[in-house]
Amino acid sequence: MKEIMKIKLLILGLIVLTFTGCKKFLDADPENLKTVEQMYTDPGYAQGFVTTAYRVIPGYYNNSSVATDEAVSSNVNDGFTQIATGSWTPSNGAFSVWNQSYSALMYINQFLEESNKVKWANDDEVSKLFNLRMRGEAFGLRGLYLYFLLRNHAGFTPDGQLMGVPIVTKFLEVSSADFNQPRATFDACVKQIYLDLDSAEFYLPMEYVDIANASQIPAQFATITQNPAVYNRAMGQLHRQLFNGLIAKSFRARTALLAASKAFQSPTNTATWEQAANAAAAVIRYKGGANALPAGGHTFYDNRTDIDGISEGINPSEIIWRENRQTNNSDRELQNFPPSLFGNGLINPTQNLVESFPMANGYPINNSNAAFNIDNPYSGRDPRLRSYIMYNGHPDLANFRTGSQSGSIDGINVRTNSTRTGYYMRKLLRWDVSLTPGAVLGRNRYTPRIRYTEMYLAYAEAANEAWGPKGTGPNSFSAYDVIKAIRTRAGVGTTNNHAYLEECAADKIKMGELIKNERRLELCFEGFRFWDLRRWKENLNETARGMDVNGTVYTPITVETRSYQDHMYYGPIPNSEVLKYNKLVQNANW
């Protein structure tokens, strides 16, 4: 990554181009931009095509939680809030990745068509390895962008066909190409993603590490070089956080889980739960199995020793892929700390989410064995509740009060940046940050792109559907094994030998609901909930609720209603594209 950051990109500063204009950079004045042919002798310029594709990777950390039953925003004009409350149209692009993705695909496709002509280095072995790595990154990124396009824009057309998006694997010349292309089937898109990820795995090492001797060179590169120094130059630790083989396996698991889900069931979709389980299992096996779940993974955002000790692109044990570390940063805390800590209280967790945290004994709070105390509702709960949500009387902040009559500036609707639900988000934040005027203190942080816990949860969901709670298929671990590891790590059910988990293990449907709830808790506020509810085809219109706590009086409140319609389980093609191209059929009822 350090090498990439040093490249002088001649395309730096360009506006991200639309699907129809991705070649404009070649039509600009020649004194400003290079021609394609100059890629062949300028490897930095050639590499810039792939670097540009990295710049617009869609992120999960986008506050989309407020478009679900997970949270609301203290800013009622938030774009995701507007979508959730009735303003989602094909022209409202908050959930669209169309233009940025097709723009990136044009850069990627042109690179793939030209990279074999580039002289990457004077040393022939180095040149070959650089070309392989860069092509592997490009294929991987092409699969990545097609996955996001499919997740955000696939759906059923008015004639009942399950369709994906146009598959573009060639660079399209503006002067001669036909941009009026129909959507490919959903199944064809999934298979194209797999094909690109296959290529990425073929060209890339599993991870970028320096080696000490020739015997450590991966087999696919051993015929090119037996020199460790040459291998390290092209495939070593300098390139950490670039797309690698493990990331390719992870996106295969994401794609397979999406394709097997209820929302995309169709006679034309050949995806199975077995495929999804085995794809996720490959990542888990690489990690070391069900019992290799990273011990502190559920508090990755505040594992201070891990975060502060990151160097040379190394990942903490929970992380498969991440963005670069930020130093002395307090942006997220400024957004989300409560007003008493000089924050803007943006993301307000709901009572709906709070109720989904079980008791520490593992039972849901509405279960007769839970020992839930309605007059002391935060006591004896799943330890993740304390870690993820700031509630009235939270033990980590003295005299923290959120009631509307509490007299605190943190109280419900006291200020425009006070909570609307009676809760503030704690997860994702470093609580050693200070926003005190005159004593502002930022801390180091990173934003994950893929966590191991996500892969474990994907396996649990798919394996349960494929083989039941304790079935393993061709693997050595089950959905039960994974969920037990996750709950044990969280400190849930450990005092009664996981009695509730054992109860669920006898019922596939009950186990499935438990798995979904564990996914909800472990991945809350990370941008998964909106997509999970849609692919499960579960209720998008659950009213967001809160709790007004004043003294010993707990008053449930209605905070925000949702206004989704059934066709919104599938996102629209942007209206601007449908108007331009008559072969581009919109999803039904948009």
Number of strands: 12
Biggest sheet: strands, sense, closure? 2 strands, antiparallel
Question: Strand-residue fraction?
Answer: 5-15%
Tally of helical segments = 20
Low-confidence stretches: 1-32
The radius of gyration is 25 Å
Instruction: Tell me roughly what share of residues is in helical segments.
Output: 25-40%
Give the averaged pLDDT, no decimals: 94
Which geometry do the CA atoms define? globular
Overall SS class: mainly alpha
Family: Belongs to the SusD family.
Keywords: Cell outer membrane, Membrane, Signal
Domain RagB/SusD: 318-590
Subcellular location: Cell outer membrane
What attributes does this structure have?
590 residues; two-stranded antiparallel sheet; two-stranded antiparallel ribbon; 20 helices; SusD_RagB_dom; membrane; SusD-like_N
